Amino acid sequence: MNFFQPILILSAAYLVVFGEATFALPRQLLGAQIDLLPALMVYAALNASLPVIVLLAVLGGLWFDTFSANPLGVTILPLFAIGFPIYLRRDLILREAPFAQFVLGATASAIAPALTLLMLLSGSQEPLLGWGTIWQWIVMTAGGGLAAPVIFSLMSRCDRALGYQPQTETSFRADREIQRSRKKL
Description:
This protein is mainly alpha-helical. It is 67% helix and 0% strand. The chain has one domain (4-162). The protein is built from seven helices and no strands. Helix 3 (37-47) packs parallel to helix 5 (76-88). The longest helix is centred in the last third of the chain and has 32 residues, at 131-162. The termini are far apart.
């Protein structure tokens, strides 16, 4: 079993959450925080196994909730709700096409805050809602869509550079010469 890919995905999730909490410049310029975890969940759902998706949803959700005003654990279910359906249909998805990556990233980045808001409203929480919420949702959707092809590219480069790549060998050698002759009887 190759443990490099799960370690790479979970490390990227930790760095994404840490970067979102540390760097406030995008939040100050745009008026909204771009969440990169849904785009990373799309990558994991298309390229990793189900236990990695569950680990990313649980750990990424807990890490995200630690730095946000959300109650602890409320982001886990929306992340899993994004990753699991993509995992089930990943054979039908064009994972190498940047347009498909953009669409999946934008859709995931639109669904995650909507599900989180739905969970907060169904509980005892009273989140602040207004016209600014629509702007934040649009920025998060566009930012997640634009970030998805970048995440796919970075993760595939890291996987190629640092991960184990099985080498296919054939029985044919290019430097081998085959001599054929007829036997005389």
